[in-house]
Amino acid sequence: MKYVCPSIGKKQKEDIKNGYQLFEVLMERNLLAADNTDLLKKLLTDAGRLDLADKLTQFGTRTRNSDPGPNEPNHSERVRIDVATDVMADNVGKNWRKLARKLGLSEVKLQSIDQKRLDLEETTREVVREWRTAQGSEASVDQLVVALKECGQLLTAEKVQDAIQKDKNINSHH
User: Fold this and answer.
1) Is the model's pLDDT at 61 over the cut of 60?
2) Distance from CA of residue 104 to its chain's centroid?
3) In what residue span(s) does the DED domain sit (predicted)?
């Protein structure tokens, strides 16, 4: 990685013997810090290490969003999201990338999901799982329905709403 780092001279690159020394140089030049990992993400992505770039992104998200409360929607919304996920897994199919982008997942995240080589149903479940993790307590079925509509999945959006309504009716009778 040291050979593709910007603004490090050839002589200094030769003097760097390990990752720790490289990070020290990058931090001295304000190219790397706890709140500035963009260069490192780019280097990892360029090196084809999307898994590590993804972990770095997740780490950054966790540290920025560390609210004292639970980072999950309330119980009833989690149940609604689970119902929606089942419907979506059966209906989104090969349009999962379009949905993932509408849900705000990064290209790195899409590549990471794609590399898992899941079937289409499991890929959609993974997209929703990643979105839910990123959204935390803000995750809602309404956001899923909007994203489905925005990527032309109107019938799937309608099926989600119908399933949620049906589930609500079933649960209100118990």
Assistant:
1) no
2) 8
3) 1-58
Distances (CA, A) of 8 to 2, 41, 47, 103, 153: 8, 18, 18, 38, 49
- Structural domains in the chain, CATH included, are 2-64 (no CATH), 75-172 (1.10.533.10)
Residue 19 pLDDT > 90: no
pTM across the whole model: 0.59
Dist. CA 60–CA 66, nearest whole Å: 10
**Does residue 144 register a pLDDT over 70?**
yes
Amino acid letter at 51? D
- CA distances 22 to 27, 42, 92, Å, are 9, 15, 44
- Digit-coded pLDDT (tens) for 114-143: 888 889 999 999 999 999 988 988 999 999
- DSSP reduced 3-state for 108: helix
What DSSP character marks residue 30?
T
